[in-house]
Design goal:
The structure is a single chain. This protein has 2 domains: 70 residues, Arc Repressor Mutant, subunit A, CATH 1.10.10.10; 71 residues. The protein is built from 6 helices and 6 strands, in the order βαααβββββααα. It has a two-stranded parallel ribbon with strand order 1-4. A hairpin with a 2-residue loop joins strand 5 and strand 6. Helix 2 packs across helix 3. The two termini are 24 Å apart.
């Protein structure tokens, strides 16, 4: 299921519930997602329940019903990772291969590196860095409110 409505605090609450991997109450969510009050947490929990992503158990706690596909992100275990990070890793691999070829040219006398190859290596490095920075920016926006919770749960 792809949900485009998840953003901001609602997305943070949802990620908290996925990472908690246990029934959570309104107070747990308020603390875990660092929301201002239990009424704010309740509002976001109701929105997630209406979307069919979580449900209340018999004790009144909320449990994960379905792990949704979040636009621009991929679930890796219980962690939500921006797709841009994977693109960065692809360019990291290409950059490593290009640098290896350049280094080999110093060892093998017959291997001559053209200037256009050096230019290509520079472009690959720039693409790798841009995707990495954008991916880290998206990741930090999602996790900036509760880094200590992620460390405890992860």
């Amino acid at each position: 299921m792809t949900i485009d409505e998840l953003e901001g605090n609602t997305l943070s609450v949802y990620v908290y519930i996925v990472q908690a991997d246990r029934p959570v109450g309104t107070r747990d969510v308020t603390r875990g997602a660092e929301l201002s009050s239990t009424s704010v947490a309740h509002r976001h929990l109701q929105k997630l329940e209406n979307l069919g992503l979580i449900e209340k158990n018999s004790y009144g706690d909320y449990i994960l019903k379905e792990k949704a596909t979040i636009k621009g992100h991929v679930w890796v275990g219980k962690n939500l990772v921006p797709r841009l990070m994977f693109y960065s890793f692809f360019f990291l691999g290409a950059f490593a291969a290009e640098v290896s070829i350049i280094l080999l040219s110093f060892l093998i006398k017959d291997l001559v590196i053209d200037v256009s190859f050096l230019f290509l290596t520079g472009i690959t490095a720039v693409a790798m860095v841009l995707f990495l920075l954008e991916g880290l920016s998206l990741h930090s926006k999602l996790n900036s409110k509760r880094p200590e919770q992620i460390e405890k749960i992860g």
